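Two folds, back to back.
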Amino acid sequence: MNDAKTILRNAITTSLIVVSACLFTATCSFAGVGEGVAFYKQGKVNEAIAEMRKASEANPQDTVSRRWLGFYLLQQGKAQEALVPLQEARALNADGPDLRHNLGMAYMGKNDYDKAVVEFNAALGMRKDWPECLDNLGFAYLQLKDYDKARDAYTKAIAIAPDNSGLHNNLGLALKGAGKMDEAIVQFKKAVELSPKNAEAATNLGLTLKTKGDLAGAQDALDKALAINKDNYAAQLGMADVLVSLKNEIAATERYEAAAKLKPSEFTPQFNLGVLYLKQSKFTESAASFGNALQIKPDELEAMTYQGWALFKAGKVDEGIAKMTEATEKGPRFATAFVNLATAYTLQGNNDKAIAAWQSVQEIAPANNSAIANLANLYFAAKSYDKALEQYQAAVKATPNSADAYFGMAACLSQVKKTDDAIVAYNKAIALNPKMASAYNNLAVELEKQNKIDRARQLYEKALEVDPKHAEATRNLKRLKETNPVKPK
């Protein structure tokens, strides 16, 4: 019986795109503005912000202090706060490419990319050859998934600054988003060529090569990214995925562990660690990893199901069954949870609950071969031969080359006294698997019912030729020789 079905989650990664706020030149017309600028030049940003706040509050019509205040707040990553003084400056009829650019940065910081695009385009209308603004415009378009416009913005930026590694990296992202993988790879390679220490470009190159199926190239690129920065989460996660594809699951486990340490709140590495630990029969570790995943996504049915299976396999039977049952209750149409629960009950020997769970699987997924096979076996064990026969017949239809399915059907036919049909089914099982000793034995039993003693003897002997230790064939042949001795010629 197969263990629980498990799948690896693909990593979803994002790449760093450098954005910038722009300084502007203006006459410091009110008290406090000059002091604020002086503080900023000394690296005292908090003091600079305090001075600009005072200046703007003291002078409601002053745009200069408001523009500086917005700029300083952007430097601290406070986009929401920065937006207020920048909008006030615009409302006071202040304008210019720097102000519009900084407004775009503020909107982008609060994920309002449509408004960011408007401001960046306005800035570019005033200052055309501005690669930084084009870069940020491209980023905004990327977030809007408008990959063609993002590509156009980055292409224009590269025409102005052809040796900028970051721009080539970002153009690669736009091309990748548009599904142009080969063109994206060219840009990522160019970015790495221009700046061998650009870990983001190396990471993106590796991830894109992985998507293309170039696992060796992906591994090389990601190795370089990790050599630059071993704390690169996207590279660790991508390398783990590559190693899984290369069937090196031990090394992949180490990479997922590294990724999980870097970002403990990310679901993917925790889930995939659970899967790999499960495959390595490290059931306690698997249960713990799935538990970590569930702390991040408490209602994730796969993680819940697999944690239950890991607990069951770790010997925590009741706890495991409870967790799998919870998954079936939260996902009444989630077949995998019922499959694992049914498997657990089957292994336990709890046939009634196993039958109920397999019936649920069959209701959700009528073509599920595991449900058909297990229900057939369980009905047979319960001596419900008509129900078992129905399932075995379904198994034969679903898997016509399965010797086991024909063998089970033959056994049921024998129990319901359909000897001729049973003989046909056993012969079919033997044709599909000539090494099935039990089929030879059982076929011989059916032939004895028809008084075909010599042929039955031959089949018992064939069963023992295939499996000399076959107990039933040994007993049957001995009995047959005693009750029907061979007459001397």
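---
second:
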Amino acid sequence: MKRPAVGLWLVVLGLIGLGGFIPTRSEGCPACVGPGRPKLTLVQQLLDSDQAVEAVATAQPGVFQVVSGIKGDLAAGQSIELDIDQRPALSLAQGQRVVLGRYGLAKRWTLFGQITAGRSDWLRKISGLKRTSELAEADWKDRIALFLPYLNDDDSLVRGTAVGEIARAPYASMRSVKGRLERDQLLAILSRASETERPLFYLLLGVVGAEEDEGVIDDLLTIRQRQHGADNLAALLVAKLEIRGPGWTKELSQRYLANREATDAEKNAACMALSIHGESQPQRFRDSVVELYDQLCMEGVLVPAMLEDLTAWKRWEFRPRMVDLLSRETTPRGTKEAIHKYITACEAAERIPLGVAIQESSRE
């Protein structure tokens, strides 16, 4: 989620080394989880723990009795007392089943969430999964297949874990749900999904949906455009591009990037959708996005997020034009900051002496 993640997602420019900027990736599809690092799922919490158990709340607030070990050597019947600052754990009814984990360095037990009975084998299985940083594309497809059956689970912790794990996948791997997830099943899941879960399901609707579902996506896009709302907009645009293909990029550009009435949030969502497809589609799609950006630049349109893509894709041919824009007083400050990062990354990539481009702009 690459403005996208592990292999795919959100482009961030990180300062490292001797003052140079290079693109780094945040984990998780930003169309699903937003920019930056996504919230840890139960899987990630278990992997970070040296001990984890299923336990039940006792009559004494904050004290739990182990029912089953998930990770580590604690046996059933042992007691665990949580720190007093973990207030949600102090108010649980006696007998409520939960998942607890202990982080090795802090040696501090934490409540991971409430869970229904009968999940012991599943919990032990997911506690032994690989970290997402270790997954190749084939591994991601297996990870998606593992969690796909739980997207509509009645247990909120299990369902949230499934949503979170699939949302971490590169978008190209999400296409593997086709043939495994039926459209009617997805629509039923979408009808009961929370607002935080909807972005993922909109993405998947673009992959497994039928022709009539494009109309549903169009209606949602129309509502957002009228209200200039950006909620779930990137996910809907990704779905629309999945259905219509590269031929729809020009219309997307006209609606959002070249539209002076569009908000910054709408433009960023449009760039995010183009970036996700630019990284998950054949090279010709990425080239068509770069051509689109070039045309927009010639028309005087430059969204900072466009420069994130150009940096991630190592398209340094825009450098002379960016040096010129950097020297102009009319260029907005936020745009100048993005240009500066792009030029600095260009300098590092092309081994141009640090600061040459900036000096060039100051002389013009």
